[in-house]
Amino acid sequence: MCTKYTYYSFNFSIELPYGKVPILVVDGNVTLSQSRVIGRFLAKRFGLHGANDIESAKIDEIIDALMDFQAGMYS
């Protein structure tokens, strides 16, 4: 697998989907945004997203619970 990833933190010469960072540009032509989407994409791409559908769902469950907890802290 010879995929090139480019991470832009604040490069305003590119169009930002939804007007926000973070974004991940994959192979120079596919732009992903939203931190959970990027995290899940990278986890799947590098074999860190569970060995089967149940493990993947449990990982997503934990991530979503942590995000809910974090959102509750700021409300």
Domain unit count: 1
Between the first and last Cα atoms, what is the distance in angstroms? 43 Å
Q: Low-confidence runs (pLDDT<50, min 5 residues)?
A: none
Main beta sheet strand tally, sense and closure: 3 strands, antiparallel
Alpha-carbon Rg, integer? 15 Å
What does the model show?
The chain is α+β, with helices and mostly antiparallel strands and 75 residues long. It has one domain (5-73). The protein contains two helices and three strands, in the order βββαα. It has a three-stranded antiparallel beta sheet with strand order 1-2-3, covered by helices on one side. Strand 2 and strand 3 (30-33) form a beta hairpin. The termini are far apart. The model has no long low-confidence stretch (mean pLDDT 83).
Task: Name a few traits of the molecule.
about 45% helix, 2 helices, single chain, three-stranded antiparallel β-sheet, alpha+beta, about 80 residues
